[in-house]
Amino acid sequence: MAEQIFYGYFEGEGAEPDFSPPRDAPCLYCGKPVHADDVRTHNLMYSASSYAKRSYFYRTHKSCDEAKGPAHELPNGTDHIILEMIARNGD
Length: 91
Prior knowledge:
There is one protein chain. By secondary structure, the protein is an alpha+beta fold. It has one domain (7-89). Helices cover 19% and strands 18% of the residues. A 3-stranded antiparallel β-sheet has the order 1-3-2. The model has no long low-confidence stretch (mean pLDDT 82).
């Protein structure tokens, strides 16, 4: 799992994630490293027929997320891309 850099997750109620992507992982909008001065954390749950055992999150630049115009929009949205990665990785 160490090579997966786009999303992290919590499995329990701990304050720290069970897996956290690198703090300088690439922004899904622009591809440049995310940094503490310009970060937004997005939380989501994988929708399945049974209870989801994990709570997922990913980070983007706050400025990119707020600028979601034609230059920054992704065809299926960032949540969809992350959910596809989770399914493909078997997480």
